Amino acid sequence: MTSHDVVVRLIEPDDFAAVSRLTVAAYRADGQLDEDHGYGAVLADVVSRAEAAEVLVAVDGAAVLGAVTFVLPGTKYAEVSGDDEAEFRMLAVDPAAQRRGVARRLVRACVDRAQALGCTSLTICVREGNAAAFALYDQFGFARDPSLDWSPAPGVDLLGMRLPLQVLAQ
After folding, report:
1. Homologous superfamily of 3-164
2. Would you say 22 and 55 are in contact if contact means Cβ atoms under 8 Å apart?
3. Which of 32, 56, 97, 117 could make a disulfide contact with 27, Cβ separation 3.0–4.6 Å?
4. What are the alphabetically sorted keywords of the record (predicted)?
5. Strands, DSSP E only, in 20-62?
6. How large is the C-alpha radius of gyration of the chain?
């Protein structure tokens, strides 16, 4: 597989089981479910996410390689986005498909979607210590924004990042 073979599209019901599996596997492999706090069940519940948000998948043919949840402020899965912003959450790439540009494609799709909707910025929260995620988001121009920092559970510190967007002319 090359990154040129990867297509990002909206999730379909046939993708739900694969996205559930790969999301939990990716978070577990990254050490983010060591002290679960019930988050593993949230990650596995793709049906609820797809009903309340836009879940995008990266696929190579029939193989689902990764997924991300794109949300707008005030919706069920929104955590930190404010007016005129979008955010993305639960970015996960199957451990067997990592280091192949899949995460980059998913982030690019979120940036493009936010711009198409006229959002002024895009936000993400990253678990403290996740150097790979910070490096990826830095490449897109995301900058740390401590006003977005929060802790959903004891010992789980999330650091906010924001990307200002150029609003596209309609």
Report:
1. Gcn5-related N-acetyltransferase (GNAT) (3.40.630.30)
2. no
3. 32
4. Acyltransferase, Transferase
5. 54-60
6. 15
